[in-house]
Amino acid sequence: MLIGKWDEAMYYVLGDPTTKPKGYDPMTEAALLWEKDNYVPKTRYNLSPFAISLNEIVPGLLVKLPPTDSRLRPDQRHLENGEYEFANAEKLRLEQLQRQPRWFKKDEDGSYRYMGGYWEAREKNNWDGIPDIFGQGCDLPSCSEE
């Protein structure tokens, strides 16, 4: 069972609390999963260190990423570094280079349906035919010739 508030802390308790006696307080057995860091450096958009870390590219991942992965967006890097004018200029440039979705198709009802192929391409590290939507040429390990 999970207990907590999304903006304060989250705890877990193993087992089914409905089988416990009346008056049972699950917090007596709760283990802390996550707790809000009260010291968060101020950023323009109040991005927490955790939010910024979601774009981090860990070792071993870069070689598996297609050149279109949003974690490679240069405008995001500028934003994270506090370079707001560069970020905005880069965002506008990238918007001019947008392409149609490759792995999804828009259905008649307006929803998108996965067409397949992404995981197969990733497994083979084969990104042939992927457009350079970030407009900087591809210098990633996943783009290099074998």
From TrEMBL:
Any GO MF annotation of the entry: sterol binding
Database matches in InterPro entries: OSBP_sf, Oxysterol-bd
Single GO cellular component term: cytosol
Pfam families, alphabetized: Oxysterol_BP
Full protein name: Oxysterol-binding protein 1D-like
